Amino acid sequence: MLTPAEIEATWLGQWASLSAEAHDGQSGFALLSSGQDAFTLRVLLSEQADRRLDVQTYLMGDGLTTWALLQRLLNAAERGVQVRLMIDDIGAVGQGRRLAALNSHPNIQVRVYNPTTIGRGHLTTRVLASVPQAGRQHRRMHNKLWITDGAVAIVGGRNLGDEYYSASEPRNFTDLDLMMIGPVVESLSRSFELYWNHGLAQPVERYHQADANAWEALHAALTERLSEHADSPYFSDLRERYADAERGSLVGELHWGEGVALWDPPGKPAWPGRPPLARTMAGELLARVGEPARRLVVVSAYFVPGRNGTSLLRALAEAGVEVEIITNSLEATDVPVAHGAYQPRRSALLDSGIVLHELRAEEDAGSETAVSVRASASALHIKALGIDDDRVFVGSANADPRSVWWNTEVGVLARSESLAAEFQALVELGQSPALSYRVGRLEDGGLYWEANSLGESVRLTREPGSLFRHIGARVGRLLWLEPWL
Questions:
Q1: Is 142 a catalytic residue?
Q2: Pick from 218, 241, 264: which residue ends a domain?
Q3: From 105, 198, 339, 381, the catalytic residue
Q4: Which of 268, 339, 383, 470 is the catalytic position?
Q5: Catalytic: 255?
Q6: Catalytic pick from 37, 54, 88, 149?
Q7: When comparing pLDDT for 190 and 94, which is higher?
């Protein structure tokens, strides 16, 4: 980790220090709901880095935004910035040559998490190679973390890939990040160090070799690709979007308050069996949140509450707490099997007065929303909680057994009334009938999905989604996969 003096000597460290002068001991927060904003901020942080860039991700795609960010990482390394990239081994499948080329730069280190030694070229062979160690290899490092100069950090749901930054056609993820400065960044830096130095994080050169200067060819290839796409609709939109942005400003107004960084122990994937809840990030989050007094909002791409989670949520609702859930509809989800495990829980949740919203696959034409910048097909990828009127949690963990028991996760619990108000405004936007279905109960016990289409209210009594998706959901129910999803 960088020392306080080293952080203070960087441009970002000085900016963070000056910004915090009037907020004694507090951290500053900004929500990043726009994919374009989230991408641009990462570009700016790469370009402003003086000493260190630490990036932790579950997946890394191959597209415009990834090319641009990798080019910026190489540019930073050429300036003398120490770059560390940590990626889950599943996310490294088929990318050995590129990761090895990055790693060949003297100022860049790449490590893969929970690796296997064989089958690394293709997802099918990687899965087959995992079978002898299935008890460990089905567990993944799901963390998403970006730290620049120990001064500015980003956590949330976004991996590296076009679909997370509104750059993919025709389908993007609706996602959310939390940018931070202040004391909470030091805790997040400590979490990165723990993962980086753990035995499950292995140098990529143990599995993939590259020539000493392979990074030069990679940099040239990235530069050529980006030059060819300089006038792409995405980059043209970015230039127009930020043409009048204030120079030197990373984000708009910051929210100030207390921030607590939470993460799973880095050795969790190697633990035998299901760990005690108290040893997980989810357990610590539950302990810190306690029982909400008035309101609980759960926004989760994959919502699989299980028997215990359903009972907990029902008890809160029956005690007078307003409980609202936002997740993907069957037609929008990219994992129908997980939706199938959620389906049997809906009736019990609704009977307790819990409000259910399911994101639609497409927005109404011409709708303007801060949650999803581009009016195209989308799927929810947010992982966040709103607690009462003063707390927000944003991280990498879904409300499902996989995030609780099997994967590692990271997130931040922030206490700030103004941040909570902004989060609630995003929630209300996402709940609008133009963007999501309101799920309710019919008199005969069945369910309905209510939304707005082309300005008119519609009520569906058959769950929206293709036959293929309905079959996938049925598989999730028939095979009783709930504990593993």
A1: yes
A2: 241
A3: 381
A4: 383
A5: no
A6: 149
A7: 190
Instruction: Quote the DSSP letter at residue 381.
Output: -
Location of structure tokens 């206490």: 415
pLDDT-derived band at 426, boundaries 50, 70, 90: very high
Residue 245: its pLDDT value, please? 59
CATH of the domain at 363: 3.30.870.10
Say whether both 234 and 294 belong to one domain. Answer: no
Same domain for 228 and 107: yes
Contact (Cβ atoms closer than 8 angstroms) between residue 423 and residue 446: no
Where is the domain boundary, 184, 219, 241?
Answer: 241
pLDDT at 365: 37
Q: Out of 113-122, 246-255, 261-270, which region has the weakest mean confidence (pLDDT)?
A: 246-255
pLDDT, residue 377, reads 58
Lowest mean pLDDT among 11-20, 147-156, 372-381: 372-381
Q: What's the rounded mean pLDDT across residues 301-320?
A: 96
- What region, left, alpha or beta, does residue 333 occupy, with left being phi > 0 and alpha being psi -120 to 50 degrees? beta
CB atoms under 10 Å from CB of 3, counted, come to: 9
Which of 231, 200, 172 minimizes the C-alpha distance to 86?
A: 200
What is residue 375's predicted lDDT score, i.e. its pLDDT?
Answer: 39
Statement to judge: residues 171 and 233 lie in one domain: yes
Catalytic residue among 105, 144, 219, 357: 144
Q: Is 229 among the catalytic positions?
A: no
189 with 323, same domain: the answer is no
216 against 361, higher pLDDT:
216
Residue 149 annotated among the catalytic residues of the structure:
yes
Q: Are residues 115 and 232 in the same domain?
A: yes
19-42 burial code (b ≥16 CB/10 A, e <16): ebeeeeebbbbbbbbbbbbbbbbb
For residue 24, give the amino acid letter. D
Largest CA distance in the chain: 70
Question: What is the C-alpha separation between 364 and 350, in angstroms, rounded?
Answer: 26
> Is residue 370's pLDDT more than 50?
no
DSSP 322-342: EEEEEEE-TTT-S-HHHHHHH
- 323, 441: one domain: yes
Q: On the CB side of 154, how many CA atoms lie within 13 Å of its CA?
A: 30
381 belongs to the catalytic site = yes
DSSP secondary structure of 131-142: GGGHHHHT--B-
62 given a catalytic annotation: no
Cα torsion 310, 327, 407, 132 to 10°: value is 100
410: domain range? 255-484
Q: Indicate if 120 and 179 belong to the same structural domain.
A: yes
